[in-house]
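User: Please predict the structure of the protein below. I'd like the answer in structure-token form so I can feed it into my own downstream comparison script.

Assistant: Understood. Taking the following sequence of 214 residues as input:
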Amino acid sequence: MGSNYRMKSIDCYAFRRIKKFCEICRKKLKLTTNSHIERKRFCSVSCRMKGTNIKRLAKPVAPFHTCRKCGKLKPVCDFYTNSYKGKNHPRQYCKKCYKLETYALFKLHPEWVEKIKTRRRIKRKSLPFRMESARDLGLTIAEALKLYTEQDGKCAICAVPPQNGRRLSLDHNHETGKPRQFLCCACNTDLSVIENTARFEKLKAYLRKHETNN
């Protein structure tokens, strides 16, 4: 080695003198190696998750997403989404792969299917109206119950409570999709016929035809 050669000095204990704080909660970080000086940013797993979510929210949702199961690049509409702070983030699996994965799990664990069915059955029976019709129109259970109590549990047209174990269904405008009020099965069916003008005219023509024959 030449006389001008010098061994580079390495400060192995620099992490002991440097103070660094968490980017989320601003707590002092516990540094144990020199690599933590540049790499360590968060004090705990929860803070790291918050930092990741902040980073995700700053980015716009891409129109295409790669499925982690099949590896194909597909549009976002082919994925189920999770809503988080006003943004719909696509899940890891596309709809097709998600259904296949779920079907395989249910096939391995049939008791899961029975538990889900029982839970849904109990939930449906505990409500005095058909929650399926309200959920399809975007109403929550609290909003649907409020609307139901305003009607005193009676049909909005005939003002008769449901009988023989039947439940009221939520009527809606078929053009705008806006929910109206809860109706019994008979009134809901009659209203659907009246709203269909072409069918209603045929029904009136049928009645007039048989009235003239008699």
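That's the full token string. The chain has three domains: 12-59, 61-108, 128-201.
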